[in-house]
Design a protein that fits this description.
This protein is α/β, with parallel strands linked by helices. Among the domains are: 235 residues, P-loop containing nucleotide triphosphate hydrolases (Rossmann fold, 3-Layer(aba) Sandwich); 160 residues, P-loop containing nucleotide triphosphate hydrolases (Rossmann fold), CATH 3.40.50.300. An eight-stranded mixed beta sheet has the order 1-8-2-7-6-3-5-4. Strand 4, helix 9 and strand 5 form a beta-alpha-beta unit. The longest helix is centred in the N-terminal third of the chain and has 20 residues. Adenosine-5'-triphosphate binds next to helix 7.
Length: 609
């Protein structure tokens, strides 16, 4: 593995060797080695040196650090790893700038530099699935960003991000939002849903932001006494802290050189830190539900009365009954703007029927629904392998597996905090460069773990489900389900999100799962997902394939078949899974004219990459 941990940038090479190894390793592991031998083996195999976690690393107080490191203008310099992710630098507007702010090379490098950017892979056609658009208004999709009618600064920022073409979900969602519709969007993991909502929302606000935004002091005038109340124009809510920070990063990129000021708030960081940030001005607020509710209870800190866009990411998770109180308050509580100009959007890769039903209650009657492929499906770029490993052999089998394939960034999922710590210790003691991410760690430790994993200082991360959704880290080549998610841990939906941490945006990756009798409750669903994604079913699971009945999902409509199994039903037979709105139109760019007649056209390559 090279210094930055990038041995396998090439998915093909990884896939071929790794798949072979996985299949061959699905046996009883070799007898465990003693500590010295396993460390020698790890080293010989090419893994980077493990690094002990430095618990004192962040104990210096912030003022001392900032006083030590200042840039040429006397401003605190960017110190990688020294601060909360929520205090990352963003573009600060000055009224002298006119319509577009000047470039700031140092910030531009941080936001758009290649170090952490996910590069588009060569296998984008995995997303060229049947596209379904439903609703009264179905604006034609865009096939290029240039033709989307975006604000010119947004167009430049999209290019700086390296996005040459909209992904299918972006192709359909961007025009639906630009034409003022509520939207529910479902598309596979890693297919660009974040930009699908951020691009149109921010683009619309770029035109009107100055008129709509609350007054606030410019950065050069900041003092403790001129703080303002945060009055965001867009609020984005998601279930986990790390995902919130990641959406914040995307918003920092897309707001570059504009007056729109994004902020992020989430649990685990002292409330005072977040208050300081949002009270400097906040146009785009990204939040986890708990911290948002906390701030909504403080009307002098945060007001929702200017909000024009509310977006729920990972919506099926947040529509779970556990979040009922939070969600109903966020969607319509406090002083929230309830005018007709307030748009609502929800996105996820999985959307079980119950969550979809609930989602409808928050949406306008004529909301637009966009689905790419079957909701809750995965894609063929993830090579899935299931290995039978008896419980008592799992740890040693994991060690063997890690050493039997080329070192690469690897995410290992377990079902409990205790197991995450135990497994991290086990791997570390064997000499492997591992860290862990779970709810039992302090927020500083969590942020540090993600950073170390992102930078490949510790290319192995053991995580609980807290990292299953949304995390977008470059070159995660291998996801291992050391524990498969049981029904109590989110079942097949959780599996889809976990394995979706690899093979993002046209790249390939491998997902290996350890299976034994403890996982029988997920066996049928696993077989369905694997069959649908054309993955080999291992012998020990063959008896769990239901060959008598056609594969039935409740993730889509009640009688819509899978692509390739005979096609969808005729138009008049299709039941609208979302309610009684006008039924399905599956639209191709060249065929958008026919969509409005309620007909049912299938084009599996609606947007060809
Ligand atoms: N049009 C595009 N061209 C190239 N890359 C893109 C494009 N749009 C988004 N990306 C990149 O694709 C990656 C995945 O995007 P994103 O995290 O939004 O996926 P997602 O669909 O939300 O996945 P998940 O369901 O796992 O949360 C990101 O690194 C993003 O920067």
């Amino acid at each position: 593995m090279s210094e930055n941990g990038e041995t396998f940038d090439n998915g093909d090479a990884f896939e071929t060797s790794a798949m072979k190894t996985v299949i061959e390793s699905a046996t009883i592991p070799a007898p465990p080695l003693n500590a010295a031998d396993s460390m020698a083996k790890v080293k010989e195999h090419g893994w980077v040196e493990r690094t002990a976690y430095d618990y004192k690393k962040f104990s210096d107080d912030r003022e001392t650090r900032e006083a030590e490191v200042v840039d040429e203008a006397g401003q605190p310099a960017l110190i990688e790893g020294a601060d909360w992710l929520s205090s990352a630098m963003r573009y600060e507007w000055d009224d002298e700038y006119g319509d577009v702010g000047p470039k700031i090379p140092r910030l531009e490098e941080e936001l758009f530099g290649k170090t952490f950017r996910q590069e588009t892979g060569s296998y984008l056609d995995a997303y060229d699935l049947k596209v379904t658009v439903e609703g009264d208004n179905r604006p034609p999709p865009i096939i290029s960003f240039e033709d989307a009618g975006l604000h010119p600064v947004m167009l430049e920022n999209v290019k700086l991000c390296g996005y040459n073409k909209p992904t299918p979900i972006q192709g359909y969602v961007i025009p639906a939002v630009l034409t003022g519709n509520d939207v529910v969007g479902c598309a596979q993991t890693g297919s660009g849903k974040t930009a699908a909502y951020l691009i149109p929302v921010l683009s619309r606000l770029m035109g009107k932001g100055r008129k709509l935004a609350a007054p606030r002091p410019l950065k050069k005038d900041w003092t403790d006494s001129n703080k303002v109340r945060a009055e965001p124009l867009a609020v984005i809510v998601c279930p986990t802290r790390e995902l919130a920070c990641q959406i914040f990063d995307e918003a920092r990129r897309l707001c570059y050189r504009t007056q729109l000021r994004p902020c992020v708030i989430y649990g685990g960081v002292p409330t005072r830190e977040h208050m300081n940030e949002i009270q400097r001005g906040c146009d785009i607020l990204i939040a986890t539900p708990g911290r948002l509710m906390d701030f909504m209870d403080r009307p002098n800190v945060l007001s929702m009365n200017r909000v024009k866009y509310t977006i729920i990411d990972e919506a099926d998770e947040l529509l779970h009954p556990d979040w009922e109180r939070e969600m109903s308050l966020i969607m319509s509580g406090g002083d929230t703007n309830e005018d007709a100009d307030h748009l609502y959007m929800m996105f996820s890769a999985t959307f079980p029927a119950a969550a979809r039903k609930l989602a409808m209650t928050f949406m306008a009657d004529d909301y637009v629904r966009v689905r790419i492929g079957r909701t809750g499906s995965t894609h063929t770029n993830i090579k899935q392998a299931i290995c039978y490993i008896a419980k008592e052999h799992k740890r040693d089998a994991l060690f063997d597996l890690l050493l039997s394939m080329p070192p690469s960034r690897t995410l290992i999922f377990v079902n409990s905090v205790r197991m995450a710590d135990m497994l991290d210790d086990f791997l570390y003691n064997k000499g492997l460069p591992s860290t862990s991410m779970h709810s039992g760690r302090t927020q500083k430790e969590r942020e540090d773990a993600i950073r170390a994993f992102r930078m490949a200082q510790t290319p192995i991360m053991v995580a609980t489900g807290v990292s299953a959704r949304g995390l977008d880290i470059k070159h995660v080549m291998h996801v291992i389900n050391f524990d498969l998610p049981s029904a109590a841990h989110g079942g097949i939906q959780e599996y889809i999100h976990r394995i979706g941490r690899t093979a993002r945006i046209g790249n390939e990756g491998l997902a290996t799962s350890f299976y034994n009798e403890d996982n029988e409750d997920i066996a049928e669903d696993l077989c369905k997902v694997m069959l649908e994604a054309k993955q080999p079913i291992p012998d020990f699971l063959e008896g769990r394939i239901d060959e008598t009945a056609s594969i039935h999902w409740d993730d889509n409509s009640d009688n819509e078949e899978l692509p390739g199994t005979g096609g969808a039903a005729d138009a008049d037979e299709v039941v609208d899974p979302w309610g009684d709105a006008p039924v399905v139109a599956v639209v191709a760019p060249a065929d958008t004219g026919s969509a409005g007649d309620g007909g049912f056209t299938i084009d599996e390559n609606a947007i060809a990459w």
